[in-house]
Amino acid sequence: MSEDHLDKNLLARNLRIFVWFRALFNARFYYPVFAVFFTDLGLTMAQFLWLNAIWAVTIVLFEVPSGVLADLVGRRKLVIFSALSMAVEMLLLIFAPQHGGWGLFAICAVNRVLSGLAEAAASGADEALAYDSLTAMSTDRQMVEKRWDDTLVSTMRWRSFAGVLSMLIGGFVFDHESMMAIFGDFPRVISLKLPVIFCFLSACVCLVLAIRLTDLGVSQGSEGQRTSVKDIGRGMIAAASWVITTRWIAVLIAGALIIDAVTRTFVTLQSEYFRWIDLPEYSFGVIGAGMSLAGWVVPLYVKPLARRFSPRVNLLIAGGIGVVALIGVAWLRGAGGIAATFVVMLTLIHVGFLMSRYINRDAPSEKRASILSVNNLTLNLGYGLFSGVVAMRLEQVDFGETMKMLPVILLALITLWFLVMRNSGQSSDAKSVRD
Question: Is 102 exposed, middle or buried, given 0-12, 13-18 or 19+ CB atoms closer than 10 A?
Fold first, then answer.
């Protein structure tokens, strides 16, 4: 469908669907008990971290090809595939046997592969479709940038709202004693699986939303032509070449990789951290809901920072906040540890906002999904490798020593990044302040 003939109402609907899809796709009811869910299912902590490494490897293999495929055959198709993959991954966990040994691990490994496919298929496609819908509605560059900032803020806030509900509900239904207090003789396995069942229902809604998207047409090639592996390969090379030759973007992605890998690994272990600081299980959902409010807090300071400082300075600010937060995680207990965990979540969202803003602004439309996928691939590769390192570390030392390692590693890596990249080119944004 040509952009010239698209109804602006349909384009505006794409933006609304993008916001709701992102909110529901990420409203995982098992997040407040993520690590605990898998260990209670019968896996060891090391197995759980290896599963996350499998998830990351899947994204490494499919992130960029899926973005290129979205540019070649249409972004809507990839978003639909993503929602279907999410639904199937949840069904696997619903029917997975508790304490099923290596059979359980195999089922969970397939679950992680499908989860990685779902993330890879959606990550570049939904954002590219939304941004192109916005550029099709207006040719004013400044207006597009402003509306995209507003769309990102709206997405973060609704995602936070959905996260609050999913965290509260997921944490509550997972707590067996709470469910027994209401229903009496309530099977423990049902409490264990209820968060996943709610995730499956959320996936079904995502599928309906994805079907209602309006594609803007195929950006590369010609509609009706079959897409070959060679086409995908050429698209991957073109997207990677753009990132490498656009030096300031490559520099930012390198910095974002460092911050994202360390902070996201901690967020993955968040529920196990709460157990380590002796918090009761029923509190996990309430705390997780509070963490979800980070999406309301970040826009209050990240938009002014993004408009005032250069991209590199903004990443240094995010990295510094992350280091301080992880120091708090390692050394504080009780309310202090919870507050530090919240700041880690702020850092993770902060970096995501910056990268979406800078890449969408400068990426060519016909390669947008592919370039976004290169960014996501790089971040997930870093996360997967770092998760593997932490998994091996946990097999040798206790959880507390591992937590003390995180801020040291982040500080060392972000300092090294600054020293190596200090002479790199700056953003083309005229508003950026040179650092």
Answer: exposed
Backbone angles phi, psi at 142, to 5 degrees: -65, -40
Domains present along the chain, CATH in parentheses: 3-220+227-421 (1.20.1250.20)
pLDDT (tens digit per residue) in 156-183: 888 878 878 887 888 788 877 878 888 8
User: Please, which contacts does 101-108 make with residues 24 or more away whose CB atoms are closer than 8 Å?
Assistant: 101/42, 104/41, 104/42, 104/43, 105/43, 105/47, 105/51, 108/38, 108/41, 108/43, 108/51
**What number of other Cβ atoms are within 10 A of residue 389's Cβ?**
16
Give first-to-last CA distance, the chain, whole Å: 44
- pTM exceeding the 0.85 threshold for the entire prediction: no
Residue 316 contacts residue 257 (beta carbons within 8 Å): no
Give the distance from CA 292 to its chain's centroid.
13
248: closest CA among 412, 422, 20?
Answer: 422
Give the amino acid at 37: F
